[in-house]
Hints:
Strand order of the largest sheet: 2-1-5-6-9
Order of helices and strands: EHEEEHEEEEE
Helix content: under 10%
Shape: globular
Number of helices: 2
Number of strands: 9
Distance between the termini: 34 Å
Largest sheet: 5 strands, antiparallel
Radius of gyration: 18 Å
Structural class: mainly beta
Strand content: 35-45%
Amino acid sequence: MNEKLLRARTTVILAYPEAFADPLKPTAAELNERFVFSTNEDGMVFAISCAIEDSSFTANFTDSDTDDERTLCDEGVVQTPVAKNYEFSFDGFRDKNVDAAGVFNLAWRLCMTPDRPFYAYVRLGFEQDAAFANGQDVSIYGLTTDNLQDIVDSGSNTKFGARFQYTGQSKENYRIGSGE
């Protein structure tokens, strides 16, 4: 029987680059060293999936930039990929209590200051709180926070728009533990 992969099986992690020996080749142990209020407040890996408003989440690799200049030896049209492009953004919910120790305030605080470097790790097919393990695939997006947007619409929850600048550092479907 065919079953759909539900959005509830999407894990989104924001992490500081220094949380990893190599942010583009994370280990399961590094990804599992998550920040937890009161028990691991020194963690630099942040699970924010449950703060993200579903319809606003975007994490995709897009068309590569290409160079179409030809040499004298090229017989036809050429397109040489020169840069891999991606997009990553989301809207997050705001907590009624700005001092509450919860995922809404955590995501907001991480994104509220411009020019903060992060890597985003997106895993599909596993519950958000499931530990990362060798053999699982994650897509990796190098980011720097941009100006946060307040989203206050009549009749809806107050949210923030997390927007990012892209560093160009990325990896699509990296297999954890492969070292490649």
